[in-house]
Specification:
This protein is of the alpha/beta class. It has 2 domains: about 5-95 and about 285-305, Rossmann fold (3-Layer(aba) Sandwich); about 100-275, 3-Layer(aba) Sandwich (Rossmann fold). About 35% of the residues lie in helices and about 15% in strands. The chain contains 11 helices and 11 strands. Helix 5 (about 100-115) crosses helix 7 and helix 8 packs parallel to helix 9. The structure holds 2-keto-D-gluconic acid.
């Protein structure tokens, strides 16, 4: 019997076209009652295509007893129950590396925006406030201290971008990284108290849950900026809102939030925070590369039983 593929949520139209034409994928998102469909037909599928956004939990895997592979569109896999997949003998792939550049670009975009007040001063011009006086002075970026929390694939590209701005780089990571010369900070708090800009580039999930706590924000201090391009769950969001409202940190640039697409409304009126709707990888080029890698993993699995970029 031909292996059947299930597509969990809506993806790029070009990717959906390939999924349909090449793999005759069934679209779960079109089912009026997804749970009922899975109870009835879940056993027919060998592979599941999902994304970092839609994930796959243990209940879904349980409803798909013939499932052998989950191919996810996205590098983060905190929404996929990896332990359950391992236990059930299901292989999981993600899309590492192809989005590093675009995510690092947005990290720097947010950093410059919040430090120099680009979005805020754009609003100032549009409100007609320039006619009443000059925009207040902002904070210099070049030559400052950049702390990178999580020196993985994306963190390393952020460090590379920083060299173009003559920034001094230090990092904190679960493990010290052997092939870099950047000084290692022993804790998130130590890194935050040193840094002018703390960029969060670590993976999401239980290990990093609320790693950036009220204490870390206090260590960053009233002159420090926080940038987050990883997952909202890495930050204690309530503590961050409090720190921004009460100016206990200088500002924040955020692409990710704890309960997306919900963003704390207390932030909407603040000029010391830049809010993006989780778009760091959102370019035509990168999303296509992510789609290509997801499909390549699926193709490889269905023909050889192996994934190209398995989650380890
Ligand atoms: C995407 C992401 O927005 O790769 C990730 O982990 O968070 C983003 O690149 C996401 O995969 C889309 O679902």
């Amino acid at each position: 019997m031909k292996p059947r593929v299930l597509q969990k949520g809506r993806l790029l139209p070009a990717m959906e076209k390939v999924l349909k034409e090449e793999f005759d994928a069934h679209m779960l998102a079109n089912e009026p009652d997804a749970d009922a469909f899975l109870r009835q037909c879940g056993g027919e599928f060998t592979a599941l295509v999902t994304s970092a956004r839609f994930g796959a939990d243990d209940a879904m895997m349980a409803a798909m007893p013939a499932l052998k592979a989950i191919c996810s569109f996205g590098v983060g896999y905190d929404t996929i129950d990896i332990d359950a997949a391992k236990r059930r003998g299901i292989a999981v792939s993600n899309t590492p590396d192809v989005l590093n550049d675009c995510v690092a670009d947005i990290a720097f975009g947010l950093l410059i925006d919040v430090a120099r007040g680009m979005s805020a001063s754009d609003r100032f011009v549009r409100r007609g406030d320039w006619l009443k006086g000059a925009y207040p002075l902002q904070t210099r970026v070049s030559g400052k201290k950049l702390g990178i929390l999580g020196l993985g694939r994306i963190g390393r590209v952020i460090a590379k971008r920083a060299s173009g701005f003559d920034m001094e780089v230090r990092y904190h990571n679960r493990h010290r990284v052997s092939d870099v010369t950047f000084p290692y900070a022993n804790s998130t708090q130590e890194l935050a108290s040193w840094a002018d800009f703390l960029v969060v580039a670590s993976a999401g999930g239980a290990d990093t849950h609320k790693l950036v706590s009220a204490k870390v924000l206090q260590a960053l201090g009233p002159q420090g900026f926080l940038i987050n391009i990883s997952r909202g769950t890495v930050i204690d969001e309530a503590a961050l809102v409090d720190a921004l409202v009460n100016k206990r940190i200088a500002g924040a640039g955020l692409d990710v939030f704890e309960h997306e697409p919900k963003v704390p409304e207390a932030l909407f009126g603040l000029d010391n925070v830049v809010l993006l709707p989780h778009v760091a990888s959102g370019t035509h080029e990168t999303r296509q590369a992510m789609a290509d890698l997801t499909l390549a993993n699926l193709r490889e699995f269905l023909s050889t039983g192996k994934l190209l970029t398995p989650v380890s």
